[in-house]
UniProtKB/TrEMBL annotation:
Keywords: FAD, Flavoprotein, Iron, Iron-sulfur, Metal-binding, Oxidoreductase, Plasmid, Transit peptide
Entry-linked Pfam families: CCG, FAD-oxidase_C, FAD_binding_4, Fer4_8
Family: Belongs to the FAD-binding oxidoreductase/transferase type 4 family.
EC id: 1.1.2.4
Ranges of residues in domain FAD-binding PCMH-type: 39-267
Top-level lineage group: Bacteria
InterPro entries linked: 4Fe4S_Fe-S-bd (IPR017896), 4Fe4S_Fe_S_CS (IPR017900), Cys_rich_dom (IPR004017), FAD-bd_oxidored_4_C (IPR004113), FAD-bd_PCMH (IPR016166), FAD-bd_PCMH-like_sf (IPR036318), FAD-bd_PCMH_sub1 (IPR016167), FAD-bd_PCMH_sub2 (IPR016169)
Chain ranges of the 4Fe-4S ferredoxin-type domain: 535-562, 589-613
Protein name listed in UniProt: D-lactate dehydrogenase (cytochrome)
Length: 957
């Protein structure tokens, strides 16, 4: 039951927003209310908006009922600016518009576009957006602009403020303004003349005060996101320009940004990197100052503690361990529009570096792999601290900027402060060209003593940054709640007064994100601190950054990986403390479906997680905890009788196929869904592209030539039992097609003994039956070891999840287990002659393909077969997840909701390397999806005479 006036607000919102987009339950308000900061507030209502008109009506209602509103994009912000205990507004799917005009000099983006997606769309034009925050693969344009987020290369010249062309915004009173539209500006001048006059007056007063105006200009010569963008008052006279530039960095406290047009910047493909080692921080900072006037793109500083945190880790250079106690590093990147320009820049920068004292001879490399290894050091710093922290602590990354000529002195003082306050694990790194340092440390908030330690430390940091160096307390992470109590300290009462006037002009009721940027409570940064209780060893290192979310198929349907961990942490806390039994029960009830049943456990989240957490492992463990003696016994039976279980599956497919042929597809599907609903979803959903049954049994192989190489082929359970769909023009079962392709390429095909009983254990693992799954994997390893003559022949699996599982499970390095795509790319392409087809090919890269690093090889195989290969850009995990497409079909539908828009005209088939994934892909695209083997076979002929083989069709039973 919502308290007043939220009950009235909820009722009013329901008049124009559906219930599924108005969240009030305890699990999702907690989970959706979480951002990347170390603050926790739980919203009363989470409203997921899909249109500008909804935002306008929502703001009008909130103004009428005096309920505060906070806007959220991706929730990666670090300073507490995206949490609230009132109304949280999230962006739905409809805010992903991207318009690129001819020439790509500008790009118009809606706030739900992920920054990296914008850059992917601009890449063919050699352009990109200016802002480049480290979170760009997750952060959305709305948050990037609202926080004036920057990064390693953009500096102060290419951030959102400097590259803004125009925007559409909704003010607190619900008024819409399009600053790029003359008619909208004219109408706004009539309706809001007083507001524009107020801004003009503020700007005129500021410019008339030479001392104040000069202070503002100086403050923004280095990175600064503390407070509002007061530089708008001295940079512009047009009040609309002032208004739209004030919106940049306003953190949702002045209005809602519904669209932004950026001036794009060049993205040069030619790059070179150098990792420079210096004897101490002073010499490193002196080198930075010398490089500042040169055409370098990025200079990243790393102190000795930073380098020590990644010492000895895989891929790190050996020399790190031998560095002295005061050594520091600079990672330098330079770019050029062509090779000649790059060479000239390398020469110019090298000449400057020659005047500094490096520990090793400075060398620039254009080798992409080596450059990537250098950046791996820099990008591994934050996760290194996060992974080694104690359970119950959080990782805090602070963000300050100093005048460049005093950077060395300030850095040494920071290092001394870490020791003084007991932060012995703290590290310093940052964007040195801009005097911008990040320092990372771990902090508990579970005792008054720990909170007081943090308070005293932050007081000391603020005093040093502001009073000694006149630097920026927040350089690029935004003010939020974290630095709101210190804004006046940094800016002084006169400039702070300007900020209050700006807020009063644009949000007179103070309803937009109150407590953020401006906050009169001197201890606001010490309140509503987020607890990080122990939940499970598999996820306790989670820092709740949200980088995982774009990879998750259930994100925006139920919970993301971050949100699953947040929910389980709260459940674990309540169980440990015995507090609030009613809340615990409600969370448990909701978590069964939201957290456990709708998790695909695909593991893609681990590829984006800074500390490598695979949330699916937690969910599998929880599924295992739910399996009682009966379920365990059933798992044992299935493991011991795999051939029989597959026979039952074939029988089910046969009956379903018979019903569809007899009644017609539509009638049969309606009947099946009706029965499923009557039984409370206990019966499986039967997709339109349901496979027909098949039964593959190896036949004696034709005699091959004496020098023919051998390959051991292991068709998966699904390949041996699921044939093509009834409506697929292709009727040959996958194992038959694979066998024929291998023979076409001149291979002798061998199979392990007792193939009908073999399984890698993936279906059992996904159900949480880990012991049974591992036993099946061990059984398969023994069988393929024997079949491969003790590892002398390669072993190929035709289903990518099975390949990935077996590769992870292998203990004997002598066994060559390859995924089918891997084998085709590495061994068959050179043995076949290809004729490219002209019709487009649609490719699905499965989760396991991506996790095995085979996506490039799969694209290369497809490119050998077709002139046009399309990988739908908005499809990651398909959500079928083994059997989830049968038991939880809404997950599959949600994951593939954007698939059809990317299917090119003329495409007649899609290709992948997982039979179950192909079922859902076929259902939701309207195209038959099948293994990429079918494409390779159709487009290839043997370079040498193939081994003859005759195979009669086999019964399914």
């Amino acid at each position: 039951m919502l308290p007043a006036p939220y009950d009235r607000l909820h009722a009013a919102l329901r008049e124009f927003m559906p219930d599924e987009r108005l969240v009030t339950d305890p699990l999702r308000t907690l989970a959706y209310g979480t951002d990347g900061s170390f603050y926790r507030l739980i919203p009363k209502i989470v409203a997921i908006v899909e249109a500008e008109g909804e935002v306008v009506r929502l703001l009008n209602l909130c103004r009428e009922l005096k309920t505060p509103v906070t806007f959220r994009a991706a929730g990666t912000s670090l300073s507490g600016q995206a949490v609230t205990d009132s109304v949280l507004v999230l962006l739905g799917d409809s805010w992903r518009g991207c318009t690129i005009p001819p020439g790509a000099a500008t790009v118009t983006l809606q706030p739900g576009v992920i920054g990296a997606e914008a850059n992917r769309k601009l890449a063919p034009f050699g352009r990109k957006i200016g802002p480049d925050p480290a979170s760009i693969a997750t952060a959305k344009i709305g948050g990037i602009a609202a926080n004036n987020a920057s990064g390693m290369c953009c500096g102060t010249a290419q951030n959102s403020y400097r590259t803004l062309a125009s925007m559409r915004l909704v003010l607190a009173d619900g008024t819409l303004l399009d600053t790029g539209d003359a008619a909208s500006r004219a109408a706004f001048a009539v309706s809001h003349g007083a507001l524009l006059s107020g801004l003009s007056d503020l700007a005129a007063r500021t410019r008339a005060d030479d001392k104040l105006a000069e202070r503002i200009r100086n403050k923004f010569r280095i990175k600064n996101t503390t407070g509002y963008s007061l530089n708008a008052l001295v940079d512009f006279e047009d009040p609309v320009e002032i208004l739209q530039h004030l919106m940049i960095g306003s953190e949702g406290t002045l209005g809602f940004l519904s669209e932004i047009t950026y001036n794009t910047v060049p993205e040069h493909a030619h790059k070179a990197n150098a990792l420079l080692m210096y004897p101490d921080i002073g010499e490193a900072c002196r080198a930075v100052a010398l490089m500042k006037p040169t055409p370098v793109s990025a200079v990243e500083l790393m102190d000795r503690a930073s380098l020590r945190s990644v010492e000895g880790k895989p891929g790190m250079p050996d020399f790190i361990g031998g560095l002295g106690p005061d050594a520091s590093a600079l990672l330098v990147e330079i770019r050029g529009e062509d090779a000649a320009a790059l060479d000239a820049t390398i020469a110019a920068v090298s000449a400057v570096i020659a005047n500094t004292r490096t520990l090793f001879p400075p060398t620039f490399t254009t080798d992409a792999k080596l450059g990537e290894s250098y950046w791996k050091i820099r990008k591994g710093l934050f996760p290194a601290v996060g992974a080694m922290r104690k359970v119950g602590t959080t990782v805090i990354i602070e963000d300050v900027a100093y005048p460049l000529d005093r950077l060395a002195e300030a850095t040494v003082e920071l290092q001394a402060m870490f020791l003084k306050f007991g932060y012995t694990e703290a590290i310093i790194f940052g964007h040195a060209l801009e005097g911008n340092l990040h320092f990372v440390f771990t902090q508990a908030f579970d005792t008054d003593e720990e909170v007081d330690r943090y308070r005293r430390f932050m007081d000391a940091v603020c005093d040093q940054v502001v009073r000694k160096y006149d630097g920026s307390l927040k350089a690029e992470h935004g003010t939020g709640r974290n630095m709101a109590p210190f804004v006046e300290m940094e800016w002084g009462p006169q400039a702070y007064g300007l900020m209050k006037e700006i807020k009063a002009l644009l949000d007179p009721q103070g309803l937009l994100n109150p407590g953020v940027i401006l906050n009169d409570d001197p201890e606001a940064h010490l309140k509503n601190l987020k607890a990080m209780p122990a939940a499970h060893p598999l996820v306790d290192t989670c820092i709740e950054c949200g980088f995982c979310e774009p990879t998750c198929p259930s994100h925006k349907m139920t919970l993301s990986p971050r949100q699953r961990i947040v929910g389980w942490r709260e459940i674990s806390r309540l169980e440990a403390t015995g507090a609030d039994a009613a809340r615990l029960s409600a969370l448990h009830d909701a978590y069964d479906y939201q957290g456990i049943d709708t998790c695909a456990a695909c593991g893609l989240c681990s590829t984006a997680c800074p500390v490598g957490i695979e949330t699916g492992l937690l969910i599998k463990a929880l599924r295992g905890d739910r399996r009682g003696a009966v379920a365990q016994g059933f798992g044992n039976y299935v493991a011991d009788h795999t051939a029989g279980a597959l026979s039952v599956a074939r029988a089910g497919l046969k009956l379903a196929d018979l019903a569809k042929r007899t009644l017609g597809n539509d009638t049969a599907n309606s009947l099946f869904e009706g029965l499923r609903n009557v039984t409370g979803q206990r019966l499986p959903h039967l997709p339109r592209a349901l496979p027909t049954p098949t039964n593959f049994t190896p036949l004696p192989q034709a005699k091959a030539s004496a020098d023919a190489p051998t390959v051991v082929y292991v068709p998966s359970c699904t390949s041996r039992s699921m044939g093509p769909a009834a409506n697929d023009p292709e009727k040959t079962p996958l194992p038959v097609k694979v066998e024929a392709l291998f023979q076409k390429a001149g291979y002798r095909v061998a199979y392990p003994e007792q193939l009908a009983s073999l399984c890698c254990g993936m279906p059992l693992e996904s159900k949480g039956l880990a012991a049974q799954a591992d036993a099946k994997a061990e059984e398969m390893v023994r069988a393929i070891w024997a079949a491969s003559a003790n590892g002398t022949a390669p072993v190929v699996l035709d289903t990518s999840p099975c390949s990935f599982r077996l590769k992870k499970h292998l203990k004997d390095a002598g066994l060559q287990v390859l995924d089918l795509v891997e084998f085709i790319h590495d061994h068959l392409l050179e043995r076949l002659t290809f004729t490219k087809q002209t019709e487009p090919v649609v490719l699905h890269l499965t989760c396991s393909t991506r996790r095995m690093g085979l996506d490039a090889k799969m694209k290369a195989v497809a490119a050998a077969c077709a002139t046009q290969v399309v990988v739908p850009e908005d499809v990651g995990c398909c959500g079928f997840a083994g059997d989830k497409g049968f038991t939880t079909p809404e997950l599959n539908a949600h994951a593939l909701r954007h698939l059809s828009k990317d299917i090119p005209a003329g495409a007649k088939a899609g290709y992948s390397n997982s039979r179950t994934c192909e079922i859902g892909l076929s259902d939701h695209s309207g195209l038959p999806y099948r293994s990429i083997v079918y494409l390779v076979d159709a487009c290839s002929t043997p370079k040498a005479p193939a081994t003859a083989s005759t195979r009669a069709s086999e019964p399914a039973f």
